[in-house]
Design goal:
Fumarylacetoacetate hydrolase, domain 2; five-stranded mixed sheet; 19 strands; globular
Length: about 290
């Protein structure tokens, strides 16, 4: 099932994507949750109810008539792993970036989350804005101390993301958080594809284009697979429904080629079975906020 958050006629709601249309959850079941995070937390029973209602539902609103929004705008965490593909680790090492021996985690602050087709801002304080195609995971069940064997059972679904990065800010600090958390640098979507539809998330082709030029192309061959990532994180913190995890990128990022993003560039990320996101780079439009 594909769970989307969308806007139509200035009203934002959630629904199920079906046959190039979207049907509001409230039209499927009378006590529909208000957010995708709540749908996932309600578990398989809720998905079964929605699937049953969907079989009898009339055609929804064509996707072309709605604006798709970030499916989970209110995550409590957005965690990302660094250098989790060997080819990317190799290109990083060639650029003089130390390669970690263990899982390397950092926060993308949740204020960076934006929609799948929204513009993304080139920071006024950075000239090294980079892209990273990544497979996203959303947690579906509250969990702690999860074994690797059980870890995939807590996954609620998957999404496409671009771990946009200001490289100069990333490497100016011992932690990556600032360089990974500029406003709009966390586009996610286009919807959440529930875990039952993806039998093997490690077998999905992931590609990224800049202005139509293919830059990244890889089947998700991770050093630390998704189960190992969730197991590792859950030793430290309680993972909650709606928490987001970006699982790493492959070779072909801009820093490796000396090709950073500029205003007007269009970046498209596509993952097999999950859809695509596409974002145009624009000038930083933020104004100063004074107390």
């Amino acid at each position: 099932m594909k769970l989307a958050r969308y806007t139509i006629a200035d009203a934002t709601t959630i629904g199920v994507v079906h046959d190039d249309s979207v049907i509001a959850l409230s039209a499927l079941i009378p006590d529909a949750p208000d957010s995708i995070r709540e749908v996932l937390a309600a578990g398989p029973e809720m998905l079964a109810r929605l699937a049953a209602a969907l079989r009898e539902a009339p055609r929804g609103t064509p996707l072309a008539q709605v604006r798709l929004e970030a499916p989970i705008p209110d995550a409590s965490k957005f965690l990302a792993i660094g250098m989790n593909y060997q080819d990317h680790a190799d290109e990083a090492a060639a650029a003089g970036v130390p390669v970690p021996r263990n899982q390397l985690w950092f926060n993308k602050q949740v204020s960076c989350i934006t929609g799948p087709y929204d513009p993304v801002q080139r920071p006024r304080v950075s000239d090294k804005m980079d892209y990273e195609a990544e497979l996203g995971v959303v947690i579906g069940r509250r969990c702690r101390f999860v074994s690797a064997a059980d870890a995939l059972s807590v996954v609620g679904g998957y999404f496409v993301t671009n771990d946009l990065t200001a490289r100069d800010w990333q490497f100016a600090s011992p932690t990556y958080t600032l360089g990974k958390s500029f406003d709009t640098h966390g586009p996610i979507g286009p919807w959440i594809t529930t875990a039952d539809e993806i039998p093997d998330p490690h077998a999905l082709r992931m590609r990224l284009w800049v202005n139509g030029e293919l830059r990244q192309d890889n089947v998700t061959q991770m050093i630390h697979d998704i189960a190992q990532q969730i197991h590792h994180l859950s030793q430290v913190m309680t993972l909650l429904p709606g928490d987001l995890i970006a699982t790493g990128t492959c070779a072909g990022v801009g820093i490796g080629m000396g090709k950073f993003l500029r205003e007007g560039d269009v970046v498209r990320v596509e993952i097999e079975g999950l859809g695509h996101i596409e974002n145009t780079v624009v000038a930083d439009a933020a104004v100063a906020y004074l107390p």
